[in-house]
Amino acid sequence: MVTDLHFHHFGVACRDLDAEAAQYAVLGYEPEEADFEDPVQGVRGRFLVGGGPRIELLAALEGSTVLDPWLRGARRAIYHQAFEAADFEGALGRLRDARAKVVVRPVPATAFGGRRIAFLLLQTMAMVEVIEAA
Fold first, then answer.
1. Based on CB atoms within 10 Å of each CB, which residue in 27, 51, 57, 95 is the most buried?
2. What phi, psi does 112 have (nearest 5°)?
3. Which of the four pLDDT bands, split at 50, 70 and 90, describes residue 125?
């Protein structure tokens, strides 16, 4: 069991950040900070905060297909939940020991000031992002 993880956000794949943010604004959400572009991940993103959990809106950069599997036939899709880990390597190891499959190996992320992230797929097919804690 990985016990040192702390919930950070839900990731929402969408086609248009502004249109999606406008819908969340009706629910009281607003941008937490400026948008970011991450060429390594092939996405442009925006964090929203409001009355519920933090939400990360993500749209593909031009030419990127990274979000296509989640957007087929839809305008948006909640496709991952993210957790910060004080012991990043330890958390990844425990998740792998629990038979989670690494789908994106650790890479520095623009959205987190270069801190590493990794994506894993649990046996239930739930996608989890692990973020290296500051």
1. 57
2. -120, 35
3. confident
